[in-house]
Design goal:
The structure holds 2 protein chains of 2 kinds. Chain A is 57% helix and 0% strand. By secondary structure, chain A is mainly α. Chain A has a single domain, classed as Non-ribosomal Peptide Synthetase Peptidyl Carrier Protein, Chain A (Orthogonal Bundle), CATH 1.10.1200. Among the domains of chain B are: 6-51 and 202-283 and 413-466, FAD/NAD(P)-binding domain (3-Layer(bba) Sandwich); 108-191, no CATH class. Chain B contains 18 helices and 19 strands. In chain B, the strands form 5 sheets. Chain B has a 7-stranded mixed β-sheet, sandwiched between helices. In chain B, strand 3 and strand 4 form a beta hairpin. The longest helix of chain B is centred in the last third of the chain and has 20 residues, at 363-382. Classes of the chains: A mainly alpha, B alpha/beta. The interface between A and B is medium-sized, with 10 and 14 residues.
């Protein structure tokens, strides 16, 4: 997957979790949590959905890598490269 | 929904969930939606665990539907469905009445700020600092500070303020001033978000909707199916023994109490010594007593509030609140709008209680103690509804022994364990691969919202295990 495709996947998963999330004007380098009112349960949902879709195991220690859209893409890019 | 009989269960599943409290129901639903084959086993004839109800005459009594935080709206939408979410309504009149103060509140930050300023003369900046401090608390923060120390820091010597802040939480989860401040901060902040909410339609309606959702997602549900033991071989989970046969699964999630899970269902032999050393330090929370009152058909009483925190004890004292003869009780008042399809007035008085106080009584003493508790509850309720006695056509009491019988929890605990139980529950699968625990632990994973959210957290762990 390309960086653009990964970004679309993340935004799609977030839209499923929070139907009120306003993705327009999202700053990719600011924490998603602050901009979209996501809580720790929402991040758990993202982790579980990524595992379901791509068999991707994200250990708890790596959760901070999912903080911003850019850090998500950076973290997932090598893991989803082959897909 | 018609539940399966255990004889019809298949010989193997991906996941077996033992117990159908809100945690067990939620973990089942999440894993079924993620594509796993789930068998849910419940010893009782109905689902829900302590989220339960019972019928007497034309009354339906809710056992643990007293009010939960607004966070339940998001949780039910994400992990259950829209219909369940849409049944959530606010309880707007929360009443406190004790020798130190009497007031009515919506139990949210804005109203508490007003009350603390106007009635308790606390400065706005201190109140704001307090709210910001508790809001920021996380379960992985330092545990050194107790709730007592937290209160003394912000409201030194103000036992009235301490009571206002603590009493509802002690009823909600059995915690005391000696428990870690973070457990208080997390639970209190959840409530202060937007107030107190309930399910319109009652517990029976909620559990009915949840069971329909489970069925739609393909969960096999067997009630009256008491698991005899969790089968562990060569250090890994193999399944469960139920109804005299082994049903196999690589993953078993116990929604039994954590102490029942380790000591009885699995057996201590399955665990390493260092785990057991930590486990043995875990203290369980107290149990509860309740008095159920049903009002004759055609009778009514005025709106006296939805949830009444009442006490004639001079100040907050969690030991006094657990005493058999406590002067402190909450009244949950259910008006006809609770169940619009079957309108009725009921009142449930709830008290904290110690199992050991009740367990050793003779039958006669036990009966008499229950009758005295009913009488004390009626006397207290008469202060708010003076003619209540003449309107009642059903009176019944439950004690820690009752809670123990229906939940099978060690010493009838109604609020799981103190904080260290959370770590044991979270790491059990690291010492016995395939074995997970979900249920009230650690104070913060207690109550309806805590139980459901913990079900989601454990579903994530179990899903990771199943896909590894």
């Amino acid at each position: 997957m390309t960086r653009g495709e990964i970004k679309d996947v993340i935004l799609e998963i977030i839209a499923d979790i929070d139907e009120d999330a306003d993705m327009d004007g999202l700053n990719p380098d600011e924490p998603l949590r602050d901009q979209l009112d996501l809580d720790s349960m929402d991040f758990l949902d993202i982790v579980m959905e990524l595992r379901k879709r791509y068999k991707l195991q994200i250990p708890e220690a790596d959760y901070p890598e999912l903080a911003t859209l850019t850090s998500c893409i950076n973290y997932l890019e090598p893991k989803l490269k082959a897909l | 929904m018609v539940y399966q009989s255990i004889e019809k269960a298949k010989n193997s599943y991906d996941v077996i969930v033992v117990g159908s409290g809100l945690g067990g129901l939620t973990v089942s639903n999440r894993l079924a939606r993620a594509g796993h084959q789930v068998l849910l086993l419940e010893h009782h004839h109905r689902l829900g665990g302590l989220a339960t109800w019972f019928k007497r005459k034309n009354h339906t009594f809710d056992v643990s539907l007293h009010g939960f935080p607004y966070g339940m709206v998001k949780t039910c939408r994400k992990y259950w469905n829209e219909a369940i979410k849409n049944s959530i309504v606010q309880l707007k009149n929360i009443v406190f009445d004790n020798p130190q103060f009497s007031l009515t509140t919506t139990f949210d930050r804005q109203d508490f700020t007003r009350i603390l300023q106007e009635k308790f003369s606390i400065s706005g900046s201190v109140i704001d600092d307090f709210f910001v401090t508790v809001r920021k608390m996380n379960f992985y923060d330092d545990l050194a500070m107790s709730t007592r120390e937290l209160f003394e820091e912000f409201f030194p010597g103000r036992s009235d303020v301490h009571r206002l802040l603590m009493e509802p939480i002690t009823y909600a989860n059995g915690s005391t001033l000696d428990d870690p401040a973070i457990t208080y901060g997390i639970v209190f902040s959840n409530f202060m978000d937007k107030g107190v909410f309930t399910f319109q339609g009652g517990t029976d309606h909620l559990i009915g909707m949840m069971s329909d959702e489970l069925e739609a997602n393909g969960v096999t549900i067997c009630t009256k199916s008491k698991v005899e033991r969790i089968v562990v071989e060569k250090g890994r989970v193999k399944g469960v023994m139920v109804d005299g046969r082994v049903i196999s699964a690589p993953c078993v999630i116990s929604n039994s109490g954590i102490t029942n899970t380790v000591d009885e269902l699995t057996g201590r032999d399955a665990f390493p010594d260092d785990f057991l050393a930590d486990f043995d330090k875990v203290k369980i929370n107290n149990s509860s007593c309740q008095v159920y009152m049903g009002i004759k058909p055609g009778e009514s009483f005025p709106d006296v509030g939805d949830l009444l925190f009442t006490s004639t004890a001079p100040s907050f004292d969690s030991l006094e609140m657990r005493d058999m003869k406590t002067k402190s009780r909450t009244f949950s008042i259910y008006y006809p709008q609770t169940r619009p399809a079957n309108p009725d007035y009921t009142v449930v008085a709830s008290m904290n209680g110690n199992y050991d106080d009740w367990a050793d009584l003779t039958d006669e003493e036990y009966k008499a103690a229950k009758q005295e508790m009913i009488e004390r509850s009626l006397v207290d309720l008469e202060r708010y509804i003076p003619d209540i006695r003449s309107k009642i056509d059903w009176l019944e009491a439950a004690t820690p022994k009752t809670f123990s019988r229906y939940t099978l929890h060690t010493k009838g605990t109604s609020f799981g364990t103190k904080f260290p139980g959370l770590d044991i529950s979270r790491k059990i699968f690291k010492v016995v691969p395939g074995l997970f625990h979900v249920g009230s632990v650690g104070i913060i994973m207690s109550g309806w919202l805590g139980a459901i959210n913990y079900g989601v957290i454990v579903a994530n762990d179990a899903d990771a295990f199943l896909r590894s």
